[in-house]
Amino acid sequence: MTNPILAAISLPLFAGVWLLTRSVLLIARSLQAKKKSLSDWPWLLLWAVTGSFFSAVNIYNPLFSEDRLVIWTAFALLAVGAFYVHFGMLIKNAQWWINDKIYT
Description:
The protein has helices at 4-35, 41-60, 66-93, 95-102. The chain is an all-alpha fold.
């Protein structure tokens, strides 16, 4: 905590690993959407892969530069957020899918 250089290295690595873990889980969720034959699963997969790409860039070179690191992290967060927004709208519009899963 008292070493700013260690904090500057560990924080981007922590954020990158966290975002990569979330992105891998989102890839699995989009493949589940494919299995359930939801129509927009390729878009979900695209958002998840985009998030994993940007988080992998964060992990690969955490000392990229301060401004670029913030931009890469922001892009990864935006991709994960876009996945959740798209997935939420897809689930809201797929009432037949939800009713089928609840009542069977």
